[in-house]
Amino acid sequence: MPAFSAHASNSSTFFLTGFPGLEQEYPWISIPFTCIYIMVLSGNCLVLHVIRTEPSLHEPMFYFLAMLALTDLCMGLSTVHTVLGILWGLSQGVSLDACIAQTYFIHGLSLTESGVLLAMAFDRFTAICNPLRYTSILTNAKIIKTGLGILGRSFMFIIAPIVRLKFFHYCHSHVLSHSFCLHQDLLRLACSDTSFNSFYALALVICTLLFDSMLILTSYILILHTVVSIASWEERLKSLQTCVSHICAVLVFYIPIIGLTMVHRFGKHLSPVVNVLMGNIYIIFPPLMNPVIYSVKTQQIRSRIQRWFSMKR
């Protein structure tokens, strides 16, 4: 790794970081990572296939789940080539343009996932707090508009800081902190004035991730208020069980983000391996766990998958 520093400052190539100090173990480390990516890609494809082929799942809740699975699938596809490329010894360098493109998709997909989780929270709020108007509120047209709005918010608002990365002067060592490119990582290597990008990124996080999480929390406070008013314990549990999968998906998404932020902010003294590991958890864990959560916790999907595999025997 130190060998990169000698020529990196005048090069347009950046060097990704695998697991420092464990280079000799990459063939073994690549095995679980390869299995994880296979599970990410196959699991989300399976969820999409089940929703597409099962008419009983053509309703708002599962349309939003399909958006979540598609987002997770794209996240896996956007990072698999760099993560496994390092572990397989294929390539550790990436051009500035390719790095910026990966940064754009990673951050755009993260914002998309947050928006989809918020839409799913509204879906659960409507189903529990206003069940009689559920189908009239969440029509197909409104779901399509919601999806387009999420995509527009996620990928349009980040164009300005991402484009500016192309024109920065990178005079520091071009060694990145992760096995993929992140906006804050590129800023760390730039010698140009990055104040706009720093403030813009902070404002964007506050207006999207923080705002979304607060709205999700508010929706569940209102859901609990409605559920408590239900007389029967059986009906209360039945109502809350429909939210378990979504709550797990929210935790799986936000906990790694918080963990990575804490490591970047307060973990300067920690081993670089911890930084790389938290980055990989942030990228891989939600796409890996969401298909598992919804396949196990959602009865309609679980029974459909069981029937599908039984027919294959």
From TrEMBL:
It is found in: Cell membrane; Membrane. Residues 43-294 form the G-protein coupled receptors family 1 profile domain. One of its GO terms (biological process) is cellular response to lipid. It holds the Pfam family 7tm_4. Keywords: Cell membrane, G-protein coupled receptor, Membrane, Olfaction, Receptor, Sensory transduction, Transducer, Transmembrane, Transmembrane helix. The chain crosses the membrane at residues 28-50, 62-84, 104-122, 143-163, 199-223, 244-264, 276-296. InterPro entries: GPCR_Rhodpsn (IPR000276), GPCR_Rhodpsn_7TM (IPR017452), Olfact_rcpt (IPR000725), OR51/52/56-like (IPR050402). GO terms for cellular component: plasma membrane. It comes from the Eukaryota. The keyword Mitochondrion does not apply. It is a multi-pass membrane protein. GO terms for molecular function: G protein-coupled receptor activity; olfactory receptor activity. Belongs to the G-protein coupled receptor 1 family. PANTHER family: OLFACTORY RECEPTOR, OLFACTORY RECEPTOR 56B1-RELATED. This is Olfactory receptor. It comes from Loxodonta africana.
